[in-house]
Protein backbone atom coordinates (compact mmCIF):
# COMPACT_ATOMS: atom_id res chain seq x y z
CA UNK A 1 0.00 0.00 0.00
CA UNK A 2 1.45 3.32 -0.94
CA UNK A 3 -0.07 5.54 1.72
CA UNK A 4 -0.57 5.30 5.47
CA UNK A 5 -4.34 5.75 5.08
CA UNK A 6 -4.64 2.81 2.69
CA UNK A 7 -2.66 0.56 5.06
CA UNK A 8 -4.80 1.66 7.98
CA UNK A 9 -7.97 0.67 6.13
CA UNK A 10 -6.65 -2.88 5.69
CA UNK A 11 -5.85 -3.38 9.39
CA UNK A 12 -8.09 -5.56 11.58
CA UNK A 13 -10.87 -3.56 13.19
CA UNK A 14 -11.15 -3.57 16.98
CA UNK A 15 -13.92 -2.77 19.38
CA UNK A 16 -12.40 0.65 20.03
CA UNK A 17 -12.39 1.40 16.29
CA UNK A 18 -16.15 1.92 16.07
CA UNK A 19 -17.75 3.12 19.28
CA UNK A 20 -21.15 4.59 18.60
CA UNK A 21 -21.08 8.35 19.02
CA UNK A 22 -24.66 8.34 20.27
CA UNK A 23 -24.54 5.90 23.17
CA UNK A 24 -20.91 4.78 23.43
CA UNK A 25 -21.88 1.20 22.69
CA UNK A 26 -20.75 -1.06 19.86
CA UNK A 27 -23.88 -1.70 17.85
CA UNK A 28 -24.69 -5.10 16.36
CA UNK A 29 -24.25 -3.92 12.72
CA UNK A 30 -20.79 -2.55 13.53
CA UNK A 31 -19.86 -5.77 15.32
CA UNK A 32 -20.86 -7.88 12.34
CA UNK A 33 -19.04 -5.50 9.98
CA UNK A 34 -15.80 -5.69 11.99
CA UNK A 35 -15.95 -9.50 12.13
CA UNK A 36 -16.46 -9.73 8.38
CA UNK A 37 -13.71 -7.26 7.58
CA UNK A 38 -11.28 -8.82 10.05
CA UNK A 39 -11.85 -12.27 8.51
CA UNK A 40 -10.66 -10.95 5.15
CA UNK A 41 -7.68 -9.14 6.65
CA UNK A 42 -6.68 -12.33 8.48
CA UNK A 43 -7.00 -14.43 5.34
CA UNK A 44 -4.82 -12.05 3.33
CA UNK A 45 -2.23 -11.88 6.11
CA UNK A 46 -1.94 -15.66 6.45
CA UNK A 47 -2.40 -16.88 2.86
CA UNK A 48 -1.92 -13.93 0.50
CA UNK A 49 0.78 -11.79 2.07
CA UNK A 50 3.59 -10.41 -0.08
CA UNK A 51 5.96 -13.02 1.39
CA UNK A 52 3.48 -15.82 0.60
CA UNK A 53 3.07 -14.65 -3.00
CA UNK A 54 6.86 -14.58 -3.41
CA UNK A 55 7.03 -18.18 -2.17
CA UNK A 56 4.34 -19.24 -4.65
CA UNK A 57 6.24 -17.55 -7.50
CA UNK A 58 9.53 -19.20 -6.49
CA UNK A 59 7.82 -22.61 -6.50
CA UNK A 60 6.47 -22.03 -10.00
CA UNK A 61 9.87 -20.92 -11.30
CA UNK A 62 11.67 -23.87 -9.71
CA UNK A 63 9.19 -26.38 -11.14
CA UNK A 64 9.82 -24.97 -14.62
CA UNK A 65 13.56 -25.52 -14.13
CA UNK A 66 13.32 -29.03 -12.64
CA UNK A 67 14.06 -32.27 -14.45
CA UNK A 68 11.02 -34.54 -14.64
CA UNK A 69 11.44 -38.30 -14.99
CA UNK A 70 9.09 -41.21 -15.51
CA UNK A 71 9.62 -43.81 -12.80
CA UNK A 72 8.55 -47.36 -13.57
CA UNK A 73 7.61 -49.52 -10.58
CA UNK A 74 6.16 -52.95 -10.39
CA UNK A 75 4.10 -54.92 -7.91
CA UNK A 76 5.16 -58.47 -7.22
CA UNK A 77 2.03 -60.55 -7.84
CA UNK A 78 3.10 -63.24 -5.38
CA UNK A 79 3.95 -61.16 -2.32
CA UNK A 80 2.25 -57.83 -3.01
CA UNK A 81 5.40 -55.82 -2.27
CA UNK A 82 6.20 -52.63 -4.14
CA UNK A 83 9.66 -52.88 -5.67
CA UNK A 84 11.73 -51.00 -8.18
CA UNK A 85 12.71 -53.16 -11.11
CA UNK A 86 16.34 -53.40 -12.01
CA UNK A 87 17.10 -51.43 -15.13
CA UNK A 88 18.02 -54.50 -17.16
CA UNK A 89 14.88 -56.41 -16.16
CA UNK A 90 12.58 -53.46 -16.70
CA UNK A 91 13.70 -52.64 -20.22
CA UNK A 92 13.85 -56.30 -21.15
CA UNK A 93 10.14 -56.75 -20.39
CA UNK A 94 8.71 -53.40 -21.48
CA UNK A 95 7.74 -52.83 -25.09
CA UNK A 96 10.05 -49.99 -26.32
CA UNK A 97 7.44 -48.45 -28.63
CA UNK A 98 4.78 -48.39 -25.90
CA UNK A 99 7.29 -46.92 -23.47
CA UNK A 100 8.05 -44.07 -25.88
CA UNK A 101 4.33 -43.42 -26.24
CA UNK A 102 3.98 -43.18 -22.47
CA UNK A 103 6.92 -40.76 -22.35
CA UNK A 104 5.09 -38.49 -24.79
CA UNK A 105 1.98 -38.66 -22.61
CA UNK A 106 4.11 -37.89 -19.56
CA UNK A 107 5.70 -34.89 -21.28
CA UNK A 108 2.26 -33.55 -22.17
CA UNK A 109 1.07 -33.97 -18.58
CA UNK A 110 4.10 -32.06 -17.25
CA UNK A 111 3.50 -29.19 -19.70
CA UNK A 112 -0.15 -29.04 -18.62
CA UNK A 113 0.90 -29.04 -14.96
CA UNK A 114 3.34 -26.16 -15.50
CA UNK A 115 0.69 -24.20 -17.38
CA UNK A 116 -1.81 -24.79 -14.56
CA UNK A 117 0.69 -23.58 -11.97
CA UNK A 118 1.15 -20.34 -13.92
CA UNK A 119 -2.60 -19.84 -14.22
CA UNK A 120 -3.27 -20.66 -10.56
CA UNK A 121 -0.59 -18.18 -9.49
CA UNK A 122 -2.14 -15.43 -11.61
CA UNK A 123 -5.57 -16.24 -10.15
CA UNK A 124 -4.18 -16.10 -6.60
CA UNK A 125 -2.68 -12.65 -7.26
CA UNK A 126 -5.93 -11.46 -8.85
CA UNK A 127 -7.91 -12.78 -5.89
CA UNK A 128 -5.73 -10.83 -3.47
CA UNK A 129 -6.20 -7.64 -5.49
CA UNK A 130 -9.98 -8.10 -5.47
CA UNK A 131 -10.10 -8.66 -1.71
CA UNK A 132 -7.91 -5.64 -1.06
CA UNK A 133 -10.20 -3.53 -3.23
CA UNK A 134 -13.15 -4.70 -1.16
CA UNK A 135 -11.39 -3.69 2.05
CA UNK A 136 -10.52 -0.26 0.70
CA UNK A 137 -13.85 0.66 -0.90
CA UNK A 138 -16.71 -1.17 0.85
CA UNK A 139 -18.44 0.55 3.73
CA UNK A 140 -20.59 -1.19 6.33
CA UNK A 141 -23.75 -1.12 4.21
CA UNK A 142 -21.96 -2.52 1.14
CA UNK A 143 -20.32 -5.26 3.20
CA UNK A 144 -23.72 -6.30 4.51
CA UNK A 145 -25.40 -6.35 1.10
CA UNK A 146 -22.47 -8.00 -0.73
CA UNK A 147 -21.31 -10.41 1.98
CA UNK A 148 -22.58 -13.51 0.17
CA UNK A 149 -20.58 -12.69 -2.97
CA UNK A 150 -17.56 -11.80 -0.82
CA UNK A 151 -17.73 -15.24 0.80
CA UNK A 152 -17.90 -16.85 -2.63
CA UNK A 153 -14.73 -14.96 -3.57
CA UNK A 154 -13.00 -16.21 -0.39
CA UNK A 155 -14.06 -19.79 -1.12
CA UNK A 156 -12.82 -19.50 -4.71
CA UNK A 157 -9.40 -18.17 -3.74
CA UNK A 158 -9.08 -20.88 -1.06
CA UNK A 159 -9.82 -23.57 -3.66
CA UNK A 160 -7.29 -22.09 -6.09
CA UNK A 161 -4.65 -22.20 -3.33
CA UNK A 162 -5.53 -25.84 -2.66
CA UNK A 163 -5.33 -26.69 -6.37
CA UNK A 164 -2.00 -24.88 -6.63
CA UNK A 165 -0.49 -26.95 -3.81
CA UNK A 166 -1.91 -30.22 -5.15
CA UNK A 167 -0.44 -29.64 -8.62
CA UNK A 168 2.98 -29.09 -7.04
CA UNK A 169 2.95 -32.66 -5.72
CA UNK A 170 4.41 -35.35 -8.01
CA UNK A 171 1.70 -37.70 -9.17
CA UNK A 172 1.02 -40.94 -10.95
CA UNK A 173 0.89 -41.28 -14.70
CA UNK A 174 -2.16 -42.98 -16.10
CA UNK A 175 -1.08 -46.06 -18.04
CA UNK A 176 -2.82 -45.73 -21.38
CA UNK A 177 -0.79 -48.51 -22.96
CA UNK A 178 -0.04 -51.99 -21.66
CA UNK A 179 3.73 -51.66 -21.42
CA UNK A 180 4.54 -55.38 -21.18
CA UNK A 181 3.52 -57.61 -24.05
CA UNK A 182 1.87 -61.00 -23.59
CA UNK A 183 4.24 -63.37 -21.79
CA UNK A 184 2.35 -66.58 -22.51
CA UNK A 185 1.63 -68.56 -19.34
CA UNK A 186 3.85 -66.31 -17.22
CA UNK A 187 2.07 -63.82 -14.98
CA UNK A 188 2.57 -60.25 -16.16
CA UNK A 189 3.86 -57.93 -13.42
CA UNK A 190 1.64 -54.98 -12.61
CA UNK A 191 3.34 -51.79 -13.80
CA UNK A 192 2.84 -48.44 -12.06
CA UNK A 193 4.18 -45.18 -13.49
CA UNK A 194 4.94 -42.05 -11.52
CA UNK A 195 6.68 -38.72 -12.08
CA UNK A 196 9.92 -38.17 -10.23
CA UNK A 197 11.09 -34.54 -9.98
CA UNK A 198 14.73 -33.55 -9.50
CA UNK A 199 15.70 -30.05 -8.46
CA UNK A 200 17.52 -27.73 -10.90
CA UNK A 201 21.27 -27.81 -11.52
CA UNK A 202 22.74 -24.33 -10.99
CA UNK A 203 26.22 -22.87 -11.42
CA UNK A 204 27.89 -21.60 -8.26
CA UNK A 205 28.67 -18.07 -9.43
CA UNK A 206 30.98 -17.38 -6.48
CA UNK A 207 33.09 -20.51 -6.91
CA UNK A 208 33.34 -20.50 -10.73
CA UNK A 209 36.41 -18.64 -12.01
CA UNK A 210 38.38 -18.14 -15.20
CA UNK A 211 42.14 -18.10 -15.63
CA UNK A 212 44.40 -17.28 -18.55
CA UNK A 213 43.78 -20.44 -20.56
CA UNK A 214 41.25 -22.34 -18.48
CA UNK A 215 38.12 -22.05 -16.39
CA UNK A 216 37.13 -23.78 -13.14
CA UNK A 217 33.38 -24.41 -13.00
CA UNK A 218 31.40 -25.46 -9.93
CA UNK A 219 27.70 -26.23 -9.67
CA UNK A 220 25.15 -27.63 -7.26
CA UNK A 221 21.61 -28.97 -7.11
CA UNK A 222 19.03 -26.71 -5.49
CA UNK A 223 18.36 -27.83 -1.92
CA UNK A 224 20.87 -30.70 -2.04
CA UNK A 225 24.26 -31.07 -0.45
CA UNK A 226 27.26 -31.53 -2.76
CA UNK A 227 28.18 -34.51 -0.55
CA UNK A 228 25.25 -36.33 -2.14
CA UNK A 229 26.38 -38.85 -4.78
CA UNK A 230 26.67 -36.83 -8.01
CA UNK A 231 24.75 -37.58 -11.16
CA UNK A 232 25.91 -37.52 -14.76
CA UNK A 233 26.10 -33.98 -16.12
CA UNK A 234 26.97 -32.37 -19.43
CA UNK A 235 28.98 -29.16 -19.59
CA UNK A 236 28.99 -27.28 -22.86
CA UNK A 237 31.26 -24.37 -23.67
CA UNK A 238 31.77 -22.06 -26.61
CA UNK A 239 33.67 -18.90 -27.44
CA UNK A 240 31.35 -15.93 -27.83
CA UNK A 241 31.65 -14.11 -31.20
CA UNK A 242 34.67 -15.93 -32.73
CA UNK A 243 36.46 -14.03 -35.52
CA UNK A 244 38.99 -16.57 -36.86
CA UNK A 245 39.04 -20.27 -37.77
CA UNK A 246 41.01 -21.03 -34.62
CA UNK A 247 38.47 -19.21 -32.49
CA UNK A 248 35.62 -20.93 -34.33
CA UNK A 249 36.84 -24.31 -33.04
CA UNK A 250 36.60 -23.18 -29.43
CA UNK A 251 33.54 -25.17 -28.36
CA UNK A 252 32.73 -28.61 -27.00
CA UNK A 253 30.71 -30.84 -24.67
CA UNK A 254 32.17 -32.68 -21.69
CA UNK A 255 30.45 -35.38 -19.60
CA UNK A 256 31.29 -35.44 -15.90
CA UNK A 257 30.14 -37.26 -12.75
CA UNK A 258 31.08 -34.60 -10.22
CA UNK A 259 30.09 -31.11 -9.15
CA UNK A 260 33.08 -29.34 -10.70
CA UNK A 261 35.37 -29.39 -13.71
CA UNK A 262 38.34 -27.46 -15.09
CA UNK A 263 38.20 -26.80 -18.83
CA UNK A 264 41.56 -26.06 -20.46
CA UNK A 265 42.98 -25.02 -23.83
CA UNK A 266 41.03 -21.76 -23.85
CA UNK A 267 42.23 -18.55 -25.47
CA UNK A 268 43.37 -15.63 -23.29
CA UNK A 269 41.21 -12.56 -22.83
CA UNK A 270 38.12 -14.10 -24.46
CA UNK A 271 34.54 -14.43 -23.26
CA UNK A 272 33.16 -17.97 -23.06
CA UNK A 273 29.64 -19.22 -22.43
CA UNK A 274 29.32 -22.31 -20.23
CA UNK A 275 26.13 -24.35 -19.88
CA UNK A 276 25.33 -27.11 -17.37
CA UNK A 277 22.57 -29.71 -17.67
CA UNK A 278 21.78 -33.21 -16.56
CA UNK A 279 22.78 -35.89 -19.02
CA UNK A 280 19.96 -37.33 -21.11
CA UNK A 281 18.47 -40.54 -19.75
CA UNK A 282 15.92 -42.98 -21.07
CA UNK A 283 13.33 -41.97 -18.45
CA UNK A 284 13.66 -38.17 -18.80
CA UNK A 285 10.33 -36.75 -19.98
CA UNK A 286 10.82 -33.01 -19.41
CA UNK A 287 13.88 -30.97 -18.54
CA UNK A 288 15.08 -28.60 -21.21
CA UNK A 289 16.17 -25.75 -18.93
CA UNK A 290 19.92 -25.25 -18.61
CA UNK A 291 21.88 -22.86 -16.42
CA UNK A 292 24.42 -20.62 -18.17
CA UNK A 293 27.37 -18.57 -17.01
CA UNK A 294 29.70 -16.28 -19.00
CA UNK A 295 33.35 -15.93 -17.96
CA UNK A 296 36.18 -13.96 -19.56
CA UNK A 297 39.67 -15.48 -19.48
CA UNK A 298 42.59 -13.44 -18.16
CA UNK A 299 45.01 -11.70 -20.58
CA UNK A 300 48.36 -13.38 -21.22
CA UNK A 301 51.52 -11.85 -19.63
CA UNK A 302 52.93 -11.08 -23.11
CA UNK A 303 49.93 -8.85 -23.77
CA UNK A 304 50.91 -6.73 -20.79
CA UNK A 305 54.57 -6.60 -21.88
CA UNK A 306 53.66 -5.57 -25.43
CA UNK A 307 51.29 -2.94 -24.07
CA UNK A 308 53.91 -1.33 -21.86
CA UNK A 309 56.61 -1.57 -24.55
CA UNK A 310 54.33 0.16 -27.05
CA UNK A 311 53.39 2.74 -24.43
CA UNK A 312 57.11 3.44 -23.76
CA UNK A 313 57.76 3.92 -27.45
CA UNK A 314 55.01 6.49 -27.62
CA UNK A 315 56.65 8.58 -24.94
CA UNK A 316 60.22 8.46 -26.41
Describe this entry's structure for a reader.
This protein is an alpha+beta fold. It contains 8 helices and 13 strands. It is flat, with a radius of gyration of 30 Å. The termini are far apart. The model is unreliable at 1-9, 15-24, 77-82 and 311-316 (pLDDT under 50).
List keywords for this structure.
316 residues; alpha+beta; five-stranded antiparallel β-sheet; four-stranded antiparallel β-sheet; 13 strands; 44% helix; 22% strand; disordered N terminus; disordered C terminus
Euclidean distance between termini CA atoms: 66 Å
Number of strands: 13
- Rg from alpha-carbon coordinates: 30 Å
Strand-residue fraction? Answer: 15-25%
**Number of helical segments with 4 or more residues:** 8
State the share of residues found in helices, binned by percent.
40-55%
Q: What shape does the CA trace take?
A: flat
Quick one: biggest sheet? Answer: 5 strands, antiparallel
List low-confidence stretches.
1-9, 15-24, 77-82, 311-316
Task: Give me the strand/helix succession.
Answer: HHHEEHHHEEEEEEHEEEEEH
Which structural class fits the helix and strand makeup? alpha+beta
**What value does the average pLDDT take?**
82
Amino acid sequence: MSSHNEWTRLQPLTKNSFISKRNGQLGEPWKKYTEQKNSIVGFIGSQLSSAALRRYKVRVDIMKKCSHYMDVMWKDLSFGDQNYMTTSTMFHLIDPWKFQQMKKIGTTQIKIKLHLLEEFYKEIKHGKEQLETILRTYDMATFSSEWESIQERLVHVTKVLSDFNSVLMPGKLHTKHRLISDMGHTKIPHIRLAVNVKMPVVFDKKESHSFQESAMLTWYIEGQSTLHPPEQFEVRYKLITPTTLEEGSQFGTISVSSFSIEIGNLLPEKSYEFTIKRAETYCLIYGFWNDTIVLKTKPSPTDHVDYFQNASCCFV
